[in-house]
Amino acid sequence: xxxxxxxxxxxxxxxxxxxxxxxxxxxxxxxxxxxxxxxxxxxxxxxxxxxxxxxxxxxxxxxxxxxxxxxxxxxxxxxxxxxxxxxxxxxxxxxxxxxxxxxxxxxxxxxxxxxxxxxxxxxxxxxxxxxxxxxxxxxxxxxxxxxxxxxxxxxxxxxxxxxxxxxxxxxxxxxxxxxxxxxxxxxxxxxxxxxxxxxxxxxxxxxxxxxxxxxxxxxxxxxxxxxxxxxxxxxxxxxxxxxxxxxxxxxxxxxxxxxxxxxxxxxxxxxxxxxxxxxxxxxxxxxxxxxxxxxxxxxxxxxxxxxxxxxxxxxxxxxxxxxxxxxxxxxxxxxxxxxxxxxxxxxxxxxxxxxxxxxxxxxxxxxxxxxxxxxxxxxxxxxxxxxxxxxxxxxxxxxxxxxxxxxxxxxxxxxxxxxxxxxxxxxxxxxxxxxxxxxxxxxxxxxxxxxx
Length: 452
What we know:
This protein is α/β, with parallel strands linked by helices. Among the domains are: 17-115, CATH 2.40.50.140; 141-270, 3-Layer(aba) Sandwich (Rossmann fold), CATH 3.40.50; 407-446, no CATH class. It is 49% helix and 19% strand. Belongs to the XseA family.
């Protein structure tokens, strides 16, 4: 008997279980992006492979989770059952069992999630305001004399800082400005300590430090008032807060961020060993320079000694004494010769004077002077007579052409107010003032009428 085949069976697309789970896995991955899920850890398992398996639950439901070793090895805390956490995960399906699960990439305590979001919001706002700008950072002093430390007086941070400073450069003076570094009032305490250090004004640099802790423990260093007080500080501020992976708002606002309190102390303190080596090298250079200088001075001294020996004052005095004797002898000879020549010259002049006595010459000159005086008197008398005759002739000629003579005959000289001589009636107008000069005196007149 032949088998009857149902024609509808040939059109069915039959899924295997593995195919079904695989496609459901793809569907879940495509439908849900990576998302944040908050819940309580339960059934935590940590096998030797390093992967973690656990469930996240709330009051009504739970979901399986897997966090592979490459994601959990850098986690900053140790999860345990009952811990409320916030995870960033990809929705997936475990194909062999068909279990719906979350593949966790990031995990943090649930309280830290809100704090981190607040941290990022404040960081972006202050950065946009320019509070973290590099141009506002102050330069750290290369050789500080006094360092201020702002931290808890009983914490491990102050011990680490003091240990490093003692090891690196014990001569540095350290001033502690104690304050609370954890708790609700810690932010205000840190601000007050920064203000106190600035009002004190004796430190070259300030260290704001604290040991490690959770995000909540470090939260006072993420407060806005602390960041603004750091920027308002007149003294450079170096932070060393928590561990190397911990960053706070104070780190961004500070002039320099160190990963730990110990590193902050190393940043601001000179290395004593390096300083010692530098001093040793400088001392060696100074010694070499001194030896070279002393060598030059010794050579110069030896040269001067030889020169002094060659030009010793006693030798020069001896030479000068001999020269002086020679000059003295020459002076005596010259003096004797001079006096002898002067005496001979005097005798010649005396003989000439005796042959020609001055009385005779004086008599001759006196007679000549009398003759010249008589001739001078005669010449002056002749010249005066000629001058009188010429003067009389010129006086008569001048009187003949003088305007004063004309005035004596009744004529007058008329001038206008400017002193111009008038020669015609049309040079003035009625009412003008004129001056009339007569032979004896003047008249001030006013013109009444003009005519030809």
